[in-house]
Specification:
Blueprint: E1 2-3, H1 6-13, E2 22-29, H2 39-48, E3 58-63, E4 66-72, H3 77-80, E5 81-85, H4 92-103, E6 114-120, E7 127-134, H5 140-150, H6 179-211, E8 238-246, H7 247-257, H8 261-279, E9 289-295, E10 308-314, H9 322-341, H10 345-364, E11 377-382, E12 390-391, E13 394-402, E14 411-418, E15 421-429, H11 436-453, H12 460-475
Parallel strand pairs: 5-6, 9-11, 11-14
Antiparallel strand pairs: 1-4, 2-7, 2-13, 3-4, 6-7, 8-15, 9-10, 12-13, 14-15
Helix pairs in contact: 6-10, 7-8, 8-9, 8-11
């Protein structure tokens, strides 16, 4: 048996039929030149033959009067590794509908909580992988590391290591402890907890002074976000949408504007959301508030599970132009990161746990529509591999992150950098946001507007790489068929910025 942390177990406690707690990735591959007609079938058989290592062979076990534990089992690989084919005409739209349906379904807790789908039937012989794992197994940063290890940078390599076969650091967890060991550890951490309480008291004091207009902190006070259609009651059906932007364009825009790639990403998301809300008559008088996950792991920390905090970042007012929007969001996000970087990881995680539990209580008690929301949506930026990756000669052309929806909200935006592109994965409650792809299309359109304001739109030489990629993608969209394109170089793990 293996211990489960309180933060990981909270992912189960807060899960409902309407709000599953799993994270996922949708990967697209070009077929290998010499794969043969039975390439997919051989791959399915080979994957099912690979044994599952921790945590992919764990299921939740109960203990009387104590936290549950992870217990090892032998998974039924035919259940966990599934082979699907898209209905004709087999285009991008059909893939998105299928993945939307899969992403809205709960994982079976009586088994290890993960599922992997090999999906064929895309134009040009392309195929897709859709992997979803319970958030108690991993967060986005952990899944990114698993991806990097499981694939190869060599197109000629026959390397074949599915994520569930990665024993060692990726699956390490603390074994169940005896009472003596627990007491010893408590003694070692008691001092840290006292410091953590003192730090939290300081943060609460700052919030109180700001609420009384006696302080100038730019850190948003929890549960003061404006209520919009992004904070409706969440229902079970999901919509999934994606967008792809050349990473160099984001880097150039950030440099020209005096900020980071992450600042540009937040600005584009805010501009798209503002446009969407305005068109629906829902633009609030106050700035939106984004919940931004931050990886708190040390550089040498490779364990699975969740080691994250969620910081609140105030976005921009609706009537701002794109330059003013960028400056406001850059100043807000950098201030928040600076204030929290002075706190210990224990204090930051405790702060996150407290506000998230309060948000979940409001959601569970049916009070979410009456109380001010904690935030309006989650916007997460996960660093991915800068080079192209291959699986038995098949080139991964993109991987879109698809996450969970936070309590009191109906949408999540996660971005992932991969091989010179930034990939946007949007997940929303289908009943609340029925036209999610329309909102998603506003993100690259907002970048064009930003580039024009910075005087970058005429730099044709700098756009060649982006134009080539768009041209290549357009060829796959002919005859009503679309192909989805991939995430940022390593960022500072504490801040999530480049």
């Amino acid at each position: 048996m293996t211990s489960i942390s309180i933060l990981d177990y909270a992912m189960f406690l807060t899960e409902t039929r309407e709000s599953p707690r799993h994270v996922a990735g949708l990967s697209l591959f070009d077929p290998p030149a010499d794969g043969g007609e039975d390439f997919i079938l051989r791959m399915v058989e080979d994957m099912r033959a690979v044994p599952a290592c921790p945590p992919f062979n764990w299921k939740l076990g109960s203990r009387l009067g104590a936290l549950p534990v992870w217990t090892e089992t032998e998974p039924d690989m035919k259940h966990h590794v599934r082979h699907l084919a898209l209905p004709r005409p087999g285009g991008y739209a059909e893939l998105m509908k299928l993945v939307s349906d899969l992403h809205g379904e709960l994982l079976d807790r009586s088994r290890p909580v993960w599922e992997f789908y090999i999906i064929e039937g895309l134009p040009g012989g392309q195929f897709a992988f859709y992997l979803k794992v319970h958030h108690a197994y991993a967060d986005g940063a952990t899944m990114s590391r698993w991806l990097d290890v499981s694939l190869s940078t060599d197109p000629k390599s026959d390397k074949f290591r599915p994520m569930w076969s990665l024993a060692g650091p990726a699956g390490r967890r603390r074994r169940q402890q005896s009472l003596t060991q627990v007491l010893e550890e408590f003694g070692k951490t008691a001092g840290r907890q006292l410091v953590s309480v003192a730090e939290l008291y300081t943060m609460i004091l700052k919030h109180s002074l700001k609420a009384l207009r006696l302080g100038d902190s730019k850190v948003p006070i929890p549960f003061t976000a404006p209520r919009t259609l992004l904070n409706q009651r969440l229902t079970a059906p999901r919509s999934v949408a994606t967008a792809t932007i050349d990473l160099e364009r984001l880097r150039r825009a950030g440099k020209a504007a005096g900020g980071t790639i992450n600042d540009v990403v937040l600005t584009l998301c805010d501009a798209a959301l503002t446009r969407y809300l305005s068109e629906h008559g829902e633009l609030p008088p106050k700035p939106l508030v984004a919940e931004m996950p931050v990886d708190l792991r040390a550089e040498d920390h490779e364990d699975g599970g969740n080691v994250i905090s969620i910081l609140l970042v105030e976005m921009a007012r609706g009537n701002m132009n794109v330059d003013e929007r960028f400056n406001a969001i850059r100043d807000s996000s950098h201030t928040v990161i600076k204030e929290f970087s002075g706190l210990s990881n224990d204090a930051v995680m405790t702060y996150t746990l407290v506000v998230q539990v309060l948000a979940q209580l409001g959601d569970s008690l049916g009070l979410a529509e009456r109380l001010p929301p904690l935030g309006n949506l989650v916007i997460s930026n996960v660093p991915g591999p800068p080079q192209a990756l291959f699986m038995r000669g098949a080139r991964m052309t993109g991987i879109f992150p698809l996450s969970t929806v936070a309590p009191g909200t109906v949408m999540n935006i996660t971005v992932f950098s991969y091989a010179g592109t930034m990939l946007f994965g949007l997940v929303a409650g289908r009943d609340a946001i029925p036209d999610l792809q329309q909102l998603t299309d506003y993100i690259p359109e907002s970048l064009v507007e930003f580039e024009q304001s910075l005087g970058l739109s005429d730099q044709e030489n700098a756009e060649k790489s982006s134009a080539a990629r768009i041209k290549k993608t357009t060829k796959k969209k002919r005859n009503g068929k679309k192909s989805a394109p991939g995430a940022t170089k390593g960022r500072n793990k504490k801040t999530g910025t480049p």
